[in-house]
Amino acid sequence: MDQVKKMTNDVLKMIREPFKINEVQKKYPFKYEESMNSVLLQELARFNKLIETIKQSLKTLQLTLEGKIVTNAEMDAIQMSVLNNSIPDKWQAKSYPSRKPMMSYVADLKSRLDMLDHWIKFGKPNVYWISGFYFTQSFLTGVKQNYARAYKYPIDRVNFKFKVFNKEQSEEESALRTSPPEHGCYLEGLFLEGAAWDDANCVLKDSLPKIIHEELPIIHFIPTYEPQNEAEMTAKKEETSKLAASALMNK
User: Range of 35's domain?
Assistant: First the structure.
């Protein structure tokens, strides 16, 4: 019982209050040319639901432990999860995927919330921590969208090319962290499993003994426009012609 109370108090102290999205929206309003504002607000909304779920469930658990309210099956399940240091199912339903033990999960969540708080206070990071996003695909789509809108390209023809920077060159890394790229984004937080990165030759290599995961260096995700080739254009014209003919026949 005492252990559950202590862990509950520790988690409540670690997790901040929900973000004030209306205030953030005034600083980062919707802009056609800046999709990252929308990405930020969407991330805050998703994390707020998780924060509220965690805080509400733990505060209710505290009241049941103090005998102020009657427990129920849900509270019993959360208490057992806390005791076993496992993420409660109620949290998982509102969370990004994670297999961490509960306290490690809470520490990871705090790091993600700190990242967003820093973004709100100081603006877009020059190097994004890709592992810190709730919905990574939304962020990557936003990067493509900024490029597509800037050059009036159809977003479905925009893809990424990649440049992996040298992990050992600290001066280069410092330069990356002081200014963003002209197009695309710098990302960190990607890992290799069962392989390692050869800095000298910029290729994959065999992993070192007993090392399963290795963090990659900073990577530049470079959006590029891929125009349709002649075969695709011909197929599209034929499809358009068939649709037009079908429409005439159905009149």
Answer: 1-123
pTM of the predicted protein model = 0.86
Outline where DSSP puts E strands in 114-237: 127-129, 158-164, 185-188, 191-193, 196-198, 203-205, 213-215, 219-225
Amino acid at 172: E
- The structural domain count of the chain equals 2
CB atoms near residue 11 (< 10 Å): 20
Res. 230: pLDDT tops 80: no
The answer on 163 and 153 residing in a single domain is yes
Residues 146 and 33: their CA atoms lie apart, in Å, by 6
pLDDT of residue 118: 97
pLDDT band, residue 106 (cuts 50/70/90)? very high
Residue 93 lies in a domain: yes
Q: How far is CA 207 from CA 111, 168, 189, 210, in A?
A: 28, 17, 18, 8
Cβ-count burial of 201 within 10 angstroms (0-12 exposed, 13-18 middle, 19+ buried)?
exposed
Identify whether residues 172 and 189 lie together within a single domain: yes
Whole-number Å distance between alpha carbons of 38 and 46: 12
